[in-house]
Amino acid sequence: MTPLPSAEDLPKYTETVIAAGRGWQVADVLCRCGPGDSPTEERHSHVSVAAVLSGSFSYRSDKGRAFLAPGSFLLGNVEQCYCCGHAHDTGDRCVAFQCGPDFVEEIAADLPGVQHIGFTTHRLAAHPFLVPTLARIARFARDGHEEDAEALAVDVVSLALRACHDTDEAPVRTQDELRVAAAIDRINHAPDAGISLSDLAADAQIGRHHFLRVFRRVTGVTPYAYLMSRRLLAAADALFDDDARILDIALDAGFSDLSDFTRRFRAAFGMPPARYRAQRTRRKMH
Question: What is the pLDDT of residue 167?
Fold first, then answer.
């Protein structure tokens, strides 16, 4: 029997194209770098919108520095040089929508108010409004249930162009990233748990007000908004994958009751949980 490769023998970085069309492709990108690996300079060969599914890392280019956590989107311009670092964690997984400028320009031409295709920021923060798109991307990467990958690519690029705007982000210290990375790891491991701002601040050994400002500066959202995005994503996955009652799914995801879950789910997805689940039945019929 051939022995399985050890973690040391696996490549540090793999990129697998899982769908492609004229002017676009989707790649499943897996990085195994950790605190002991030195960042190396790379260059975007496409306009890139990458959904972070797991892991956290720092990203730096001539435009500055950003911290990427699960649920956020990394934005890259064609020919832009950058470095990624994992000073506080090991590995990450992203699904990257890599597009040619003509493809992006075609989409931008139909979006009111979008004047150019160059992204002016590195990141879309992990806000609950991104969860419906993130859920589609995660399902597509997992089992290919997205019927039209090209439509998904169009929607993802459109979302990035509309959400991206000029920002003057405050500089972020490495120590702040370390504190926030630990908090994000705790939330991601148990998003259904009753984690309070006081708990996270105590872990970071700083005051609540200071921690709130640090978390928002590093991630772009509050701890509560990030927690809600993870709970909504877990619930959306369960609605597609499980046959449990919607109430049980809501409680398992960490929501206090069905009405609160339904209100938040409708606000994020534009439909109630029952209608969202019905999409699974229609998809199986086709």
Answer: 46
